Amino acid sequence: MLFNSLDFALFLPIVFALYWFVFQKNLKAQNALVLVASYVFYGWWDWSFLWLILFSTLVNYLFAIGLGKYEKERTRKLLLWASLAVNLGFLGFFKYYNFFLDNFVQAFSFLGHPISIKGLDIVLPIGISFYTFQTMSYTMDVYYEKLKPTKDIIAFGAFVSFFPQLIAGPIERATNLLPQFHTKRKLDYAKAVEGCQQILWGLFKKIVIADNCAEYANKIFENYQDYNSATLLLGAIFYAFQIYGDFSGYSDIAIGSSSLLGFSLMPNFAFPYFSKSIPEFWKRWHISLTTWFAEYLFFPLAFSLRKYKKYGIILSIVFVFFISGLWHGPSWHYILWGLFHGLLFIPSILKTGTNPFNQNKLNAPTLKDVHLVLSTFFIICFTSIFFRANDVSQAVNFIKGIATLKSGISLNINGINLYQFVVTIIAIIYLMLQDYHLMKKYKFGLLFLPSTLFMIFYFGHFKSTASFIYFQF
């Protein structure tokens, strides 16, 4: 069930009405409704993979109970590693089995000893990377005694499968979301209105920004040999806005839908295209994943390498982004994309010698910062070519086409609808103005509703219901 579909437009009001006007007096009944609604939501795609969510729920529930029961450190550590092995084992099998197998076969062929091993026809369960990381964080938080294990299997099941953020995040921490399932919730009119505004803003990002930009980005990337340098650069810029509109739009709808049910999710984007550096960008982009890696991977690794000082920090950050690239997909172009971002942290670390994930206040840029914002944005556009390309070869050739000023620098938009092109540019300008308005800590203004509805109904891409990019991860 897609957020931008008629199905969801009917599904959410039905859940809202039952939640607040039928089961409002019974917390357990509300949690049970969320659990059932979440399984229906996920099963809309493929009922056959519901067993994976159920298995993940039961395994992590039982391991956490064990961690709370035993005090002996050796036993608790054994339970933790067993939990991680099960979670990563399932994720690794469904997402990475064929990737590692193919590279294993290629390595033997490179060494002159070709072998033949057939891969498996494995379908990647949608959302598995997201809910696996969420359940892993729960077990680790219980192990580190940040959270007591819950004995309420319904509440825990609803936490794991919570439908607004089940498929593509935000990746919630159990310390934030799980206690909300144990707390009596009341309908807050102001919060509900704010949730509806955020849903509307997310729909604008998806239907107007992402899906219109996709028309050009897809055309240019799929036929990159036919376009000159300026058009290839335009394709990279359009893709940057496509993925931002697509993923942050999903996050906005998820957070807004949660607000309607009385839940608060962590923000997942903080106006990333106003960043003045790559480290700042990663404090603003996919915040739930970045902070997950920082908390559960970077800090433990950097602590173990602390004797190497800034070089230990560099090794830690590069490794984290290598894993981040691999998390996004079992392909070398994702891994290289992650490594590039890790390497781009090095100048900042060498200069300051400090933790790049520090929680310094993120300020809005001034006119003096325009060159920093633009240079950071174009770096993001170039690295995103590896993220968007089908493989490393396509990414390299695409960048070569830009760098060599192939066929001149005049814009070639043959075959592109000029009206839709202009509309897309206007929509991007509206997006950035509204983002900057919100970044300055102003709330949605009086003109937000009519102007955004106008943009959606007149400029929205309704030809087809397009899936969200991060569903593939």
What does this structure look like?
The chain has 473 residues and is an all-alpha fold. It folds into 2 domains: 6-187, no CATH class; 191-472, no CATH class. 67% of the residues lie in helices and 0% in strands. It has 18 helices and no strands. It has helices spanning 6-21, 27-43, 50-69, 73-110, 128-143, 153-161, 174-181, 189-222, 229-260, 278-284, 287-304, 310-328, 332-344, 346-352, 370-388, 392-403, 418-439, 448-459. Helix 8 (189-222) packs antiparallel against helix 9, helix 9 crosses helix 15 (370-388) and helix 15 packs across helix 16 (392-403). The longest helix has 38 residues, at 73-110. The model has no long low-confidence stretch (mean pLDDT 87).
Q: Summarize the amount of helix as a percent range.
A: 55-70%
Shape summary: globular
- Overall tally of domains: 2
**Residue fraction in strands:** under 5%
- Structural class label: mainly alpha
Span between termini: 17 Å
Q: For the CA atoms, what is the radius of gyration?
A: 23 Å
Number of strands: 0
Order of helices and strands: HHHHHHHHHHHHHHHHHH
Largest sheet, described in full?
none
How many helix segments? 18
* Overall mean confidence score, pLDDT: 87
Low-pLDDT stretches are: none
